[in-house]
Structures are given as structure tokens and as C-alpha cells.
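Reviewer 2 asked us to include a model.

Predict the structure of this chain.
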Amino acid sequence: MESSLLDVLFLSEKRKNLLLLLLDGPKNIEEIKNTLDVRSSPIMTQIKILMKQDLVVESSNRLYKLSSIGEILVPKMKMILETFNVFDKNHDYWINQDMTSIPPEFLEEIGKLGDYIEVKPDRNHVFEYPKEVVKKLSESEHVRISSSFFLPIYPSLCIDLAAKGTDITLVFTEYVYDRMLNDYKKELEHFLNLKYTKLYVCNNNNMKIASSIVTEKFMSLSLFCNSGIYYNHNLVSFDESALKWGRELFDHYKNIARPITKL
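Predicted model (C-alpha cells):
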């Protein structure tokens, strides 16, 4: 019985790895063998299967590359595999989080989070960022924070970062901004008067995630539970794809917010 195209794409780890490798460009058999650490005979069997399904073609100079069909299907296969990996890594977490809070165009690319970890503060610091996050923030030169949830650590953390020359931009919802304005006005004025600081405020309805952070070193994401309850945590990733996803998410919120230059 002839295998379906779906089976050919997903039911062999060797074929998946080969297709993902060819997504980077044409390769000869030696490059394929060395990169995938395989022998000639087994990988040639997989190449022939892929060629039979018109997913891979061989050029005149004996380079193997994705066919026109392969160039359409393999990027989509990669996105599906990345998404599976993100959900499979921490299934219990995702099933309990309000994923509808993530803008649809970013939820579609949630697989870009890559090899993330979940970090939480210890019980003595439940209203602060986990120490792993604070350490990475202190090492970063460019910090972008968006938040719809107020944490008492915000005033001191943001001032400390800005005071040492960190380029820091914040996007808060009206709720967080009002809380800062009412309870930490002096600190907020100090922050705005420091060099390399920017503050934007967006409508409460325009930001549903709890918070996100992105720097040149890492990104983190924090969501509300399906019940609407929040517990302090951060999904942290150092993958370049996650940093790009995080920067674009931050820009999404900044672009629908208004700048605050003085109180």
C-alpha cells in the first residue's frame, strides 16, 4: 500500500530531519550524511521515498533540494512540529492558561518559543520576578516590558535598570499606569526623567496577556489562567526565534499605545 503524503512527511524521523535540513538550501550526499550523522544506504532510501513523492529533486550537479511542492509544505511542517514541541513540553501548563489572550497572529506562531522553561519565584518573593529573570534583566542592555498586571517590583526594578544606563521601554495598560500614578507617582516621574527611558500606555482591552519581557538575551511570557486567576511565573526562552517573536509582540502593543512623556 502506497504511503500518503502525510505519512511521508511525519512518520519518519530521518525524513523529517532531512526535509528540515534541505529547508536551509541544497545539499550533496556528503553534507547530508555529515550533518545528520547517517550512513549512505539508509539515507538514500529516504531520499528515494521523498523523490517519489515529489518532495525532493536532484539537480544536475548531484545536489538534493526541495521541490516546488516541498518548498510550500516543509515550512508548514516545521511550524506544526515547533507548535507540537511547545505544547508537548509542558502540556499541563498550556491546558490551564488563557491562550486566547495572545493575539491570533502571534498564537499561530507560538512554536517560536522553542526550548523554553517555566520559572517561578520562591515563596518568600511571590510578588517579584523570579531571580533568574532579574539576573538576566540586569545583564541586558535593551529591555522591553509590556504588562497588564501590576507587580510591586516594577518601580524599583525599572528605576534601577534605567539608572545604570539600560535602554528600557515600558508598555502598560491603563490599569497598571493608574496604579503607578496613584501609588508611585514620585518613582514614575523619576523614571521618565532618566535617560533612555520610554513609557507607553494602552487601553485595558488591548492587552490580555499578563506580561512579556524581551531583551537582546532572552524573552519571557506570563499568562492568566483560564479562571482569570494569576500566579507569578514566567516562560523563559533564549532561542533567537523566541526573541524575534517577543520583539514583534512588544511592538504590537507599543504601536497601539500612546506615549507618556510627562505626568
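The chain has a mean pLDDT of 91. The chain has two domains: 5-79, 91-260. We have added this to the supplementary material.
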